[in-house]
Design brief:
It contains 7 helices and 2 strands. It is mainly α and 142 residues long. The chain has a two-stranded antiparallel ribbon with strand order 1-2. A hairpin with a 2-residue loop joins strand 1 and strand 2. Helix 2 (20-37) packs across helix 4 (59-82). It is globular and about 65 Å long.
Length: 142
């Protein structure tokens, strides 16, 4: 099950992606990157937490689930804007300079400034995930 449908994406006020096929591609890639970063918090195969259940849960669970969906939508927009949906693809889009003969062109690229480490996640997405407690790392005491 996808974390976010195209209708939910547009319902949240996002409009950058207009083609549902493109959205589906970016959403799947966003799921992968967010799952890795959040240690599969809402992943259906892992089944530790349910996005559907949280949307019908306590006030905090509903808030967390809605913000999670907003983060997925923002990540889809980020992938669309940079023109790639993998960390390697994003790194390859960040061409900082090229030299052909005596001609040297250097771009002032800001992709690294908008990308959290080497994760491929937009810094805004990471900020949302951190605020809802999905970026914390701890050792289990059990």
């Amino acid at each position: 099950m996808a974390y976010l449908t195209f209708d939910e994406y547009t319902g949240l006020g996002f409009s950058r992606i207009t083609d549902e096929t493109v959205f589906d591609q970016h959403e799947l890639a966003a799921e992968t990157q967010i799952d890795i970063t959040t240690q599969f918090f809402y992943n259906a195969d892992y089944a530790a937490n349910s996005l559907v259940d949280d949307l019908a849960g306590t006030q905090w669970q509903v808030f967390r689930a809605k913000q999670f969906k907003r983060a997925v939508a923002l990540q889809c927009d980020y992938f669309d804007e940079v023109g790639a949906d993998t960390p390697v693809g994003i790194a390859n889009q960040d061409l900082s300079s090229i030299e052909i003969g005596r001609t040297h062109v250097q771009a002032n690229s800001n992709v690294n400034a908008t990308n959290f480490g080497k994760t491929g996640l937009a810094t805004g997405v990471v900020a949302i995930l951190a605020q809802i407690g999905l970026m914390s790392r701890a050792v289990s005491y059990r």
